[in-house]
């Protein structure tokens, strides 16, 4: 495989594109609303109507507006005037109606049963897609589709035209920061691992998306798996590694199967394996499947799990960059971080650095869910305000309610009150508000949600998920949970409130890993912004 | 002779399970594919559970001996991860997602409805072995919250009524 062969595959794929594309979302959200039957129905209907020469039905990744699934999008190619139509909540018995609209070529006469989506609504127009640029457009199970979308060109470019230090400099210069939640500068992490001298080095992709309410990584893996593989391969070249692992949670069977397909396809075309692009660079990727432990999202616990052990964290330092998997220097990045790498190489670090705020560059994918009209995935430039996300893109709270708070960062994050919705979303601003960027779950809560209940819910989560290695986390989360139960039942006194605050402080500062250190965050942030809700439960006569 | 002794006595020769159960041959093949590497323990336990439905002590011992790991290590891993089950499961499975998005949209009411109609708590199996109920932390199906998984199929936008109807199908069979 060389560049001309790669470009030829891309050209062939573009040539074989038919004038009319019917794209049917086959990501997990739509699949559970019967999207597969819709897709097969459409294929059949197109064949029966004799339109196979001009119409192509394909299964694609997430189209982002998950609440309206199954989604079907019809695109006419650029020869005619480019137009796109989106159909929502398509049922298998509506496929003939869709094909009929193609034949009469008057999409305006849509039968009333078909629900047409508005592609000009802010939910779509205010997005800026980098990570999700191919999501909902290409077939995730065909490597040709990814290659046609300029895939693997960045890898070729790095292998033949860049030195490892150039790659690291580019990533550092782009200002990319870890998308898993911590926000550690990616370039700096790569440079540290690259500097380490060892017989072997490893690259790990953390796809153990455990935060409840977050499904960005699942969507990226299901919609565009090759993007992650390419990002990992570029990272491996930069740090000098030949073996990579993707640690995926077992709850995502579809993501696992699409990754397996993608790895096989890439190996067949010699884009992974030995002598990638006929260069001296070798890189293998293996999948490791989790077994349902939230703590395995923590990097040292994740490595223990890859080694086949109980997923308990170990103290840092030594950091994985010095001593990681089996004691060798290891680079761990999140799915979304790796998904950003190829575009940075393709378009240049300056291009990436021009998006976002001063300290947080690029875009961030959020999973918008909860009490909001448009639930689904959004990708926005860093620095977009929460108000814009919730009220304009999300369409506000349904049934005339009003948003009370937004929960970000999962069990490690906190609740941001509606009064702070004008805050730009970046790493620093969210931390200042007592929450955190987290991996990108964003759950909207309305007036009916009790904040004490939310704190109680997250504490129950942390109590159950504590691995039990260190006492502050194991016992502290249990005690905190008991205190919150007491408060919720209206049996607590001021003494309990003091104890709650004191215990939060203790657990935060003495726990071993991120799980325990951040477990009190939901309590602290609700105490900070919604203390009146606690007070009404305590001052009850 | 217990299974353990039988396994011991055959150590060093070819390690075959004395029961002659075909499923052990598949498990052996999986372990061989992983070159009996100890770090593949989790993958092998996944396969074992897929074949046998749950991980009983005999099976864990068999894996321990095959991979030359202390039984305590295998037992420790099997009990650490939520997805491994050491007790048999019912014929039907119902998993209620209690992720944040589902929680905000009323997952607690769904769980209460299931617990009431099946008369079991999360993590338990009905006495007639028809239904196992469990909770999931997040299925990543937040766009269609609240979600419930019936026998491996994710169903979105659930209500206590919808869940109740489904359970009647499962539980009504033997009545």
UniProtKB/TrEMBL annotation, chain A:
The keyword Transport does not apply. It holds the Pfam family Complex1_51K. Residues 452-497 form the NADH-ubiquinone oxidoreductase 51kDa subunit iron-sulphur binding domain. It comes from the Bacteria. SMART domains: NADH_4Fe-4S. InterPro entries: NADH-UbQ_OxRdtase_51kDa_CS, Nuo51_FMN-bd, Nuo51_FMN-bd_sf, Nuop51_4Fe4S-bd, Nuop51_4Fe4S-bd_sf, Thioredoxin-like_sf. One of its GO terms (molecular function) is FMN binding. Keywords: 4Fe-4S, Iron, Iron-sulfur, Metal-binding. Belongs to the complex I 51 kDa subunit family. PANTHER family: NADH-QUINONE OXIDOREDUCTASE SUBUNIT F. This is NADH-quinone oxidoreductase subunit L. It comes from Phormidesmis priestleyi ULC007.
TrEMBL record, chain B:
SUPFAM superfamilies: Thioredoxin-like. Its cofactor is [2Fe-2S] cluster. Binds 1 [2Fe-2S] cluster. Keywords: 2Fe-2S, Iron, Iron-sulfur, Metal-binding. Transmembrane segments: none annotated. Pfam families: 2Fe-2S_thioredx (PF01257). One of its GO terms (molecular function) is oxidoreductase activity. CDD domains: TRX_Fd_NuoE. The keyword Iron applies. It comes from the Bacteria. The keyword Protease does not apply. [2Fe-2S] cluster binds at residues 97, 102, 138, 142. Belongs to the complex I 24 kDa subunit family. PANTHER family: NADH-QUINONE OXIDOREDUCTASE, E SUBUNIT, POTENTIAL NAD-REDUCING HYDROGENASE SUBUNIT. This is NAD(P)H-dependent oxidoreductase subunit E. It comes from Phormidesmis priestleyi ULC007.
């Amino acid at each position: 495989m060389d560049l001309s062969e790669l470009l030829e595959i891309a050209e062939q794929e573009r040539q074989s594109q038919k004038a009319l594309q019917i794209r049917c979302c086959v990501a997990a959200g739509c699949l559970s609303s019967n999207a597969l039957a819709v897709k097969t129905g459409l294929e059949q209907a197109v064949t029966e109507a004799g339109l196979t020469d001009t119409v192509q039905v394909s299964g694609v990744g997430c189209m982002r507006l998950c609440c309206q699934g199954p989604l079907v999008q019809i695109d006419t190619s650029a020869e005619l005037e480019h137009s796109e139509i989106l159909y929502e909540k398509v049922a298998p018995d509506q496929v003939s109606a869709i094909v009929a609209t193609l034949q009469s070529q008057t999409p305006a006469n849509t039968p009333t049963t078909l629900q047409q989506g508005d592609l000009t609504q802010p939910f779509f127009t205010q997005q800026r897609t980098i990570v999700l640029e191919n999501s909902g457009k290409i077939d995730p199970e065909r490597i040709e589709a990814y290659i046609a979308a300029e895939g693997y060109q960045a890898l070729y470019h790095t292998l033949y035209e860049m030195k490892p230090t150039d790659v690291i400099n580019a990533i550092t210069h782009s200002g990319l920061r870890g998308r898993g939640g911590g926000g550690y500068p990616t370039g700096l992490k790569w440079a540290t691992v690259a500097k380490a001298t060892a017989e072997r080095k490893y690259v790990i992709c953390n796809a153990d998306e455990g935060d409840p309410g977050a499904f960005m990584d699942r969507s990226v893996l299901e919609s565009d798996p090759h993007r992650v593989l390419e990002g990992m391969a570029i990272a491996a070249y930069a740090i000098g590694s030949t073996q990579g692992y993707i640690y995926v949670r077992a709850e995502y069977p579809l993501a696992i199967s699409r990754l397996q397909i993608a790895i096989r396809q890439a190996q067949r075309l010699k884009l992974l394996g030995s002598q990638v692009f006929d260069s001296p660079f070798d890189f293998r990727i293996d999948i490791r499947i989790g077994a349902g432990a939230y703590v395995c999202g923590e990097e040292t616990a994740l490595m223990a799990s890859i080694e086949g052990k109980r997923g308990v964290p170990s103290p840092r330092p030594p950091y994985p960059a010095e001593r990681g998997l089996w004691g060798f220097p290891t680079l761990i990045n999140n799915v979304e971080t790796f998904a950003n790498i190829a575009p940075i190489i393709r378009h240049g670090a300056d291009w990436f650095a021009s998006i976002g705020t001063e300290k947080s560059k690029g875009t961030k994918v959020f999973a918008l869910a909860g009490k909001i009209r448009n639930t689904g995935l959004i990708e926005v430039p860093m620095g977009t305000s929460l108000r814009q996300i919730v009220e304009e893109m999300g369409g506000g709270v349904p049934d005339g309610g009003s948003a009370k708070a937004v929960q970000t960062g999962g069990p490690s994050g906190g609740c941001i009150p509606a009064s702070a919705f004008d805050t730009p979303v970046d790493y620093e601003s969210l931390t200042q508000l007592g929450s955190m960027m987290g991996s990108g779950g964003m759950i909207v809560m309305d007036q009916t949600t009790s904040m004490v209940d939310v704190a109680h819910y997250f504490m129950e989560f942390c109590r159950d998920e504590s691995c039990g290695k260190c006492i502050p986390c194991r016992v502290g989360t249990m005690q905190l949970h008991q205190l919150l139960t007491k408060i919720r039942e209206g049996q607590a006194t001021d003494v309990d409130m003091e104890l709650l605050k004191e215990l939060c402080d203790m657990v935060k500062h003495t726990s071993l890993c991120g799980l325990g250190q951040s477990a009190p965050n939901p309590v602290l942030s609700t105490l900070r912004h919604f203390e009146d809700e606690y007070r009404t439960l305590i001052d009850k006569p | 002779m217990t299974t353990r002794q039988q396994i011991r006595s055959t150590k060093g020769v070819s390690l075959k399970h004395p029961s002659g159960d075909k499923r052990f041959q598949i498990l052996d093949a999986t372990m061989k594919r992983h070159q009996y590497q100890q770090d593949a323990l989790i993958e092998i336990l996944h396969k074992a559970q897929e074949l046998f439905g749950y991980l009983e002590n005999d099976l864990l011992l068999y894996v321990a001996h095959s991979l030359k790991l202390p039984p305590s290590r295998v037992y420790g891993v099997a009990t650490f991860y939520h997805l491994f089950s050491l007790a048999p499961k019912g014929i039907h499975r119902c998993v209620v997602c209690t992720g944040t998005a589902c929680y905000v949209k009323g997952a607690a009411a769904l769980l209460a409805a299931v617990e009431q109609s099946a008369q079991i708590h999360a993590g338990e199996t009905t006495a007639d072995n028809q239904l196992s109920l469990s909770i999931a932390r997040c299925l990543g199906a937040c766009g269609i919250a609240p979600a419930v998984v019936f026998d491996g199929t994710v169903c979105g936008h659930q209500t206590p009524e919808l869940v109740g109807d489904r359970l009647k199908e499962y539980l009504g069979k033997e009545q």
